[in-house]
Amino acid sequence: MLLSRFPRVSLAHLPTPLEPLPRLSKHLGGPNIFVKRDDCTGLGTGGNKTRKLEFLMAEALQKKATVVVTQGAVQSNHARQTAAAACKLGMKCELVFEKRVDRPSEPYVKSGNVFLDRIYGARIREVEKGSDMNAALEAVAVELAKKGELPYVIPGGGSNKVGALGYVDCAHEFMTQANRTGLRIDHVIHATGSAGTQAGLIVGLKGTNSGIPLLGIGVNAPKDIQEERVFKLAVETAAYVGAAGTVERRDIVADCNYIGDGYGIPTEGMNEALLLLARLEGLLFDPVYSGKALAGMIDLVAKRQFNKKDNLLFIHTGGSAGLFGYSDRLKTG
Length: 333
Description:
- By secondary structure, this protein is an alpha/beta fold.
- The protein folds into two domains: 18-47 and 160-326, Rossmann fold, CATH 3.40.50.1100; 51-158, 3-Layer(aba) Sandwich (Rossmann fold).
- Helix content is 41%, strand content 15%.
- Strands 1-2-10-7-8-9 form a six-stranded mixed β-sheet, sandwiched between helices.
- The termini are far apart.
């Protein structure tokens, strides 16, 4: 599976570390938990979207784009990293935010990722909850084209077959790291939302016959919808890299029992998981994605879904900048 034939620009600090979490593992009484530190990708405080942007922004440059246009929720980690990438590559950036969270607080609309978006000079537009976001992106692109710009549209989360290449590459990366250190990986766990991370990972894992099961912990959609979304993109991505037929529907597993009251709404379990990792391992997780996935993994361990001698690899997708947007809603006591 040769990814070097696809256009790519260097944006991330790679490879990201793969580290043990001994204090968490001991606290939970097993299994052995490791973390893939994709919060350390570097660009705009880091996060998983930087891997995707290496391929997406390369295509934008290839098409001579002058402005990138993308969308997300108000506290979007993807938007923040896209804005940073645009600055680094000399492009403009237009962000379309869906107001997904009802009755947002002042920190949510002004701090965290939004504050960084403004530092990076991105132009921000907002649309109401439930809007057709693809149509909103297209409308902005048409408007910009009429003004003489050459827009490049990036879907929410950078999740298309181009962006998913970043996580095909990540799967290869952590398997290489594991092989070099003699680490047997029994399960890989991560947050799944816009589908690109999970789709890329499963293509990378299946395309190399790793035999490692992948579990996505959902943050915004019911199980059936999330799994179908991931499967569709995984099939497209596999065909794109020349590995058609490697991914089956049964390979896509999402546990969507930890969403709580909805996307971007904190849960007690997430809050507890955030504090636990901060105080046991000195790691920060975000309240929307990695925090809920972390809470899910901890609960599954407590329910004995894994053997005590298993080695679990948790993909830390970053996003700690978003903590500031939730500073009035998270408990620290």
